[in-house]
Amino acid sequence: MSRQRRAWVLPVSLLLAILLELLPLPDVLQPLRPYWPALVLAYWLLELPERVGPGTAFLYGLLGDLTYGSLLGEQALRLVVIAFILERFRARMRFFPMSQQALAIGVLLLNDRVIVVALHLLMGIPQRPWIDWISPLIGLLLWPLLHLALDLARVRRKA
Length: 159
Fold this sequence. Notes:
The chain is mainly alpha-helical. It has six helices and two strands, in the order βααααααβ. It has one domain.
């Protein structure tokens, strides 16, 4: 059996992650939204480090800043920090069982929440509600499903 790679999956998945952030949710569910761009970027950083790195994370973050109308550079900083950490520990994380990999992604998303709080404190922006701290847990729970879905989309087996 040979494998056939699909080059279109990378840009489409990154674009879809940005669109998922724009998807309107009821006020009750809004704080539970996982940080989709970070989850999708984390997958690509782990699977295709030769094509996706901190530079890609920075440009992707700027695109997110422009799309969401957030503080210019906020998304970029958040994604570059995630990219740097994943690049540093990629060799280990690739061999983690999925449960440990999901836990590591959850810790990265928790670290992202800390960065958001620090940025908002520095800029004098009002803090988000405490329930926002649940979103890293949602990301942790979604990681195995997202990983599997992107794996299936990225690599097609041919008989």
